[in-house]
Automatic annotation (TrEMBL):
One Pfam family, short name: GATase
GO MF, one annotated term: transferase activity
PANTHER family: GLUTAMINE AMIDOTRANSFERASE YLR126C-RELATED (PTHR42695:SF5)
GO cellular component: cytosol
Organismal lineage: Bacteria, Pseudomonadati, Pseudomonadota, Alphaproteobacteria, Hyphomicrobiales
Glutamine amidotransferase domain residues: 16-182
Protein name per UniProt: Probable glutamine amidotransferase protein
Keywords: Glutamine amidotransferase, Transferase
InterPro entries, A to Z: ChyE-like (IPR044992), Class_I_gatase-like (IPR029062), GATASE (IPR017926)
SUPFAM superfamilies (UniProt xref): Class I glutamine amidotransferase-like
Keyword Kinase belongs to the record: no
Length: 245
């Protein structure tokens, strides 16, 4: 199982997703586009694609010129039936790739929040184990319209498109399900000034908030991570499924 991970911002981290990929014996290849702008040459070398978050918007082509190609690459993976996962900025790039509109600065959420599932979400392989709603970590200001080909899976009062699916295994999650308490602690240490500006008082209350929400959020995030990894089809399986009976 070969998975390409696109890191849009230094030290983003995989958190719960790293654990799920490790359990599945996945081989991860990192593409640190924040450093060199290099993306996979094509889709043949990987069974799945993960696009992580970042501080830029999905439309910041001038300062991040790789973004249009990343959107096209994600679309090629998805059109080929391969598993694709976009988290936060990654979900916004996926929305762009499939023809939706990106809305900048209109949907700020930070910290642990409750997310509600749609009827489709309750039945979807990614989220069906979570019941009708769950707590998870958020950090975003942008949002997007739902691509025409997508199914809305989850929503919040601030951003109605919290999770969507296109086809078999193309998923975008606006929320950071990968951000377990360890990842959040790292973000707290690395970005204190930004957090203090966008969420006054959160740093001072972090310990109490983590104690109240962290266990449930970590469990939900790991369940989502394992569910998505289970949808990855290694190339050998795909070839066998095409063999004549």
């Amino acid at each position: 199982m070969r998975v390409a991970v696109v890191e849009n911002m230094k030290n983003t981290g995989l958190g719960a997703l790293a654990r799920a990929l490790d359990e599945a014996g996945a081989e991860i290849e990192w593409f640190r586009v924040w450093q060199d702008g290099i993306l996979p040459l094509d889709i043949a070398g990987h069974d799945a694609l993960v696009v992580l978050g970042g501080e830029q918007s999905a439309l910041d082509d001038e300062t991040h010129p790789y973004l249009p190609e990343l959107a096209r690459l994600a679309r090629r993976f998805g059109d080929a039936g391969k598993a694709v996962l976009g988290i936060c900025l990654g979900s916004q790039i996926l929305a762009r790739a499939y023809g939706a509109d990106n809305h900048l600065g209109t949907a700020r959420e930070f910290g642990w929040h409750r997310i509600g599932l749609t009827g489709e979400g309750r039945a979807d392989p990614l989220l069906s184990a979570l019941g009708g709603e769950f707590t998870i970590f958020e950090w975003h200001a942008d949002t997007f319209t739902l691509p025409e080909s997508a199914v809305r899976l989850a929503a919040s009062p601030v951003a109605e498109n919290q999770a969507f699916r296109i086809g078999r295994a193309v998923y975008g999650t606006q929320f950071h399900f990968e951000a377990d308490r360890t990842v959040v602690e790292q973000w707290k240490a690395e970005f204190p000034d930004t957090i203090a500006r966008i969420a006054p008082g959160w740093l001072e209350n972090h310990a109490e908030l983590a104690a109240h929400h962290g266990v449930a959020a970590d469990a939900a995030g790991l369940a989502i991570a394992r569910a998505w990894v289970s949808l990855i089809e290694p190339a050998e399986i795909g070839l066998l499924s095409e063999a004549p009976a």
